[in-house]
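Exercise 7. Given the encoded structure of a 112-residue chain, write a plausible sequence.
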């Protein structure tokens, strides 16, 4: 296989990947107007749906409930510590200071 045919097959692979991703762009663009209408608290509640797992690097939490507090304009999140099963109620401001990352339990098991 020559240099040019190797380069062509590499670019052809990229073209396939780009075409696959372009199919998702239309679906994402359709969601944009609805997402723009959400408040910050509502958007955070949508992203941190019930059952989502988050970690601060040391502890794994499951989002038990996430609900907007319209009177204060922020999100209230009930986190369950996966080790102790204790429930913690946090505001969106408190969560922002925790620097949490969304994970799947399999990612935590592999890294831990």
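Solution.
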């Amino acid at each position: 296989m020559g240099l040019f045919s190797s380069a062509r097959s590499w670019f052809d692979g990229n073209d396939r990947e780009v075409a696959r991703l372009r199919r998702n762009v239309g679906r994402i663009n359709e969601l944009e107007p609805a997402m723009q209408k959400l408040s910050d608290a509502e958007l955070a509640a949508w992203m941190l749906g019930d059952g989502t797992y988050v970690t601060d690097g040391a502890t794994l939490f499951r989002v038990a409930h996430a609900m907007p507090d319209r009177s204060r304009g922020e999100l209230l999140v009930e986190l369950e510590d996966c080790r102790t099963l204790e429930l913690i109620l946090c505001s969106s401001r408190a969560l922002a200071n925790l620097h949490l990352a969304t994970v799947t339990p399999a990612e935590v098991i592999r890294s831990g």
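Remark. The chain has four helices and five strands. Students should compare their own answers with the one above.
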